[in-house]
């Protein structure tokens, strides 16, 4: 694709990549996104043309920076903010330890939450990042603003648990001292938000003598929106944008991208402004976003009145937009198959919560294999041997070959399609008293009268077994084969739409996305090993015959 005819196709970061923050350093653009309970923390993607992107690094990689043992589902690392100043990259983020009740303004009863905001720095985007500085715990979605006078300020949303209060109490600011590594003075409430509520995700910018405050409002579901306000003083008062929302699909259920919100701005070297934002792509038949919250980008224009609007003027998220005409810079395609031949886990894969992966898996215990050590169950909040990658397309195939010999029913390992501890489909090998080594599926169902469901066990011979899943929008099929014979398809069709934010029980947080990968657990505490020789993930078009 040439320099002048490129089109950006949204989303640019497919699959679970929410809450984007973008920064340009020279000719390089970097976007940081939330990882929640998945380890290592924060995904950083890189581009040089805003069209092509690659996953570059995850900076929170050791216990001194991030330990999420015990963090509930959909908690952990929220809303990183990535900036560059004084020769350093700065990354601020929240580690959520307790979600509390889901409530709206004016609701009665306490809604206690625990969230801690931190700052880490590095001279290199892909280098070793510092140990964190604790900033505050007053709310989530912290952002660091570097003022043109050299001073720095942290802004975050303020959480108010008191009965009768607006839980999302507005945006607060407080000065940060790099020399003292702490906040200075008193925090100040600078913006209370608009009537749609859920004011969060603040970012500050300075332009032509104004401080511009960008926030997300309306909740991270169908009512999400990007709000803008401005003030001559950093501490306010802030006047609202004439249109209030500069980007939203809240009144357009026909839009291809929904849930648009949680945004950040970047300028190209020639002064053009682009916005990155969170979005979701509902599957056509069920209206659920099985790929989670993704990241999109599109051009914006500053008007003669000093306000920012979408380039086309309609304020809607767009599936495709004109690229800025930068020199094309594609990256090599990701491999379809990972053979686990190296000492490090391939970058597309993550695990859950623990900063001590050596307790969970090894790439050296058996050459050319990923060995999982059976730990706690898929619903645990602590130590799980579950290694997976994002589902990044509505239609895909995934498969692996596994060598594992369970001795009893409490030992299990296999292929898993996973959203969280209460939402997954797990094709696993175990042991049955009557059948011996066997295969079956366990499903955790968030929106069914039965919390879990099992298929009838199938006897299988010893030795390596290939496991396969085919997903087409809301339809999921499993298959297996032994010794290279034809695939045997399980007769059941499973509901892939449960692997979404929208499938839930009331009051539970649901902010991550669907993963597919490998799991091993041993409820007897004997650390049964399961060896995986390779893993394939292949995106494709929809097909009616799973075979």
UniProtKB/TrEMBL annotation:
One Gene Ontology molecular-function label: xylan 1,4-beta-xylosidase activity
Pfam families (UniProt xref): GH43_C2 (PF17851), Glyco_hydro_43 (PF04616)
Species of origin: Luteitalea pratensis
The keyword Hydrolase is annotated on this UniProt entry: yes
InterPro entries: ConA-like_dom_sf, GH43_C2, Glyco_hydro_43, Glyco_hydro_beta-prop_sf, Glycosyl_Hydrlase_43
Protein family membership: Belongs to the glycosyl hydrolase 43 family.
SUPFAM superfamilies reported in the protein's UniProt record: Arabinanase/levansucrase/invertase (SSF75005), Concanavalin A-like lectins/glucanases (SSF49899)
Location of the Beta-xylosidase C-terminal Concanavalin A-like domain: 337-538
Any one biological process term the GO annotation gives: carbohydrate metabolic process
Listed EC numbers: 3.2.1.37
Broad enzyme group: hydrolase
Keywords on record: Glycosidase, Hydrolase
Annotated site residue numbers, Important for catalytic activity, responsible for pKa modulation of the active site Glu and correct orientation of both the proton donor and substrate: 141
Identification of the protein by name: Beta-xylosidase
Catalytic residues as annotated in Swiss-Prot or TrEMBL: 19, 200
